[in-house]
């Protein structure tokens, strides 16, 4: 079985918290209906002979009133909470489930002790199945509701009813099997739906990366870089600061590909992308690939001096990498030509790119392996 990833585990915990906050509302209403039925059963009996007196006196009524009050109070709190996605609401729902379970355990204890056993199995079965429907997605929370009720009924029956009969024991075992098998089926569908949702989210994220990143180097592609540059222009138009653009071209890269092969050429482009990222890191720059062997670097809040310093750093990092280029006409290692352009208020993105491209052309015309 494939081990769930960390992202899926986090999503599972989040969805369980959301699910319990959603489903517990219905569960609380069901509990209020059940407790109201237990409270009013004697008062609305068809004849007085059907009325049963419970021992210990008033314990059953107390448990049911607590159940009603707790359910109503939590419903009110969850309805009026200022933040419906608050983490503490999930914790409140879980503790409420435990409190309701203890109330029902007390109720069934009184019914068994008082020999009012006719409604115990159908009432407990309906109550446990409503818990299954509401809480199947979180086994711990479901068990926290079922276990106190289950143990109370079984243990009390052993001590106050001269032991369980074979038929009664089979009934409870059969009910346990139904609840557990139902929980597994429902939980399987819950997990399947969650995995499909996670897979779709991962796919959307991958598509987003492919749409905005160059698949070879992992840096921004032309579309994403131009969007970043448009944002930079809007931002700098507001603050009035300048920013710089460097356009680079790998010197004689076609000769590099012909000499070393395209696989080595891809490795060379990836190494250059890492070098540009390293150079741009100190100035929070953005690196992109415009296509082929052409790269661009955007340097926010850079003046002419900062722009030249960045170009020198790029050349120095590439020199330190010392990538061999035996076919180059300007050096025995990989070098780049760089065109620098400084944005000023009123300059459009297209004009800025054209200025950097013109400077790059001049650098090539003057012998390459330099910046202009």
Automatic annotation (TrEMBL):
SMART domains to which the protein is assigned, alphabetical: GGDEF
Cofactors (names): Mg(2+)
EC number in record: 2.7.7.65
Residue intervals passing through the bilayer: 18-39, 59-80, 92-113, 119-137, 142-160
SUPFAM superfamilies reported for this sequence: Nucleotide cyclase
Database matches in Pfam families: GGDEF, MASE5
Domain GGDEF: from-to ranges: 241-372
Any one annotated GO CC term: plasma membrane
UniProt keyword annotations, A-Z: GTP-binding, Membrane, Nucleotide-binding, Transmembrane, Transmembrane helix
Biological processes per GO annotation: cell adhesion involved in single-species biofilm formation; negative regulation of bacterial-type flagellum-dependent cell motility
Pathway note: Purine metabolism; 3',5'-cyclic di-GMP biosynthesis
GO molecular function: diguanylate cyclase activity; GTP binding
InterPro entries for this protein: Diguanylate_Cyclase, GGDEF_dom, MASE5, Nucleotide_cyclase, Rev_trsase/Diguanyl_cyclase
Domain of life: Bacteria
Keyword flag Nuclease: no
Keyword Transmembrane helix: yes
Reactions performed catalytically: 2 GTP = 3',3'-c-di-GMP + 2 diphosphate
PANTHER family (UniProt xref): DIGUANYLATE CYCLASE DGCM-RELATED, REGULATORY COMPONENTS OF SENSORY TRANSDUCTION SYSTEM
Name listed for the protein in its UniProt record: diguanylate cyclase
Organism field: Lelliottia wanjuensis
């Amino acid at each position: 079985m494939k081990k769930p990833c960390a992202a899926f585990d986090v999503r599972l915990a989040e969805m369980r918290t959301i699910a319990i906050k959603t489903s517990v509302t219905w569960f609380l209403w069901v509990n209020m209906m059940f407790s109201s039925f237990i409270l009013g059963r004697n008062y609305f009996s068809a004849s007085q002979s059907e009325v049963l007196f419970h021992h210990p006196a008033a314990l059953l009524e107390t448990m049911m009133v607590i159940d009603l009050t707790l359910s109503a109070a939590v419903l009110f709190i969850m309805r009026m909470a200022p933040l419906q996605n608050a983490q503490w609401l999930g914790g409140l729902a879980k503790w409420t489930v435990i409190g309701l379970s203890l109330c029902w355990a007390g109720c069934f204890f009184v019914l068994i002790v008082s020999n009012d056993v006719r409604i115990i199995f159908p009432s407990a079965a309906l109550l446990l199945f409503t818990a299954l429907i509401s809480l199947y997605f979180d086994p711990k929370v479901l068990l926290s509701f079922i276990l106190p009720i289950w143990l109370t009924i079984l243990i009390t029956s052993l001590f106050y009813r001269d032991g369980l009969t074979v038929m009664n024991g089979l009934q409870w075992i059969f009910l346990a099997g139904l609840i557990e098998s139902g929980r597994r089926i429902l939980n399987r569908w819950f997990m399947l739906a969650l995995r499909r949702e996670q897979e779709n989210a991962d796919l959307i994220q991958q598509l987003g990366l492919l749409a905005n990143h160059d698949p070879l180097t992992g840096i921004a592609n032309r579309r994403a870089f131009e969007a970043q540059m448009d944002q930079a222009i809007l931002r700098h138009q507001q603050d009035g600061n300048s920013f710089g653009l460097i356009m680079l071209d790998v010197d004689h890269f076609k000769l590099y590909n012909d000499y070393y092969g395209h696989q080595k050429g891809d490795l060379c482009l990836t190494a250059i992308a890492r070098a540009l990222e390293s150079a741009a890191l100190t100035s929070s720059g953005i690196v992109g690939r415009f296509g082929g062997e052409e790269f661009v670097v955007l340097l926010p809040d850079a003046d002419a001096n900062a722009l030249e310093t960045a170009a020198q750093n790029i050349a120095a990092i590439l020199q330190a990498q010392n990538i061999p280029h035996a076919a180059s006409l300007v050096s025995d290692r990989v070098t780049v030509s760089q065109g620098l352009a400084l944005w000023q208020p009123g300059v459009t993105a297209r004009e800025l790119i054209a200025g950097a491209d013109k400077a790059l052309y001049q650098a090539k015309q003057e012998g390459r392996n330099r910046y202009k």
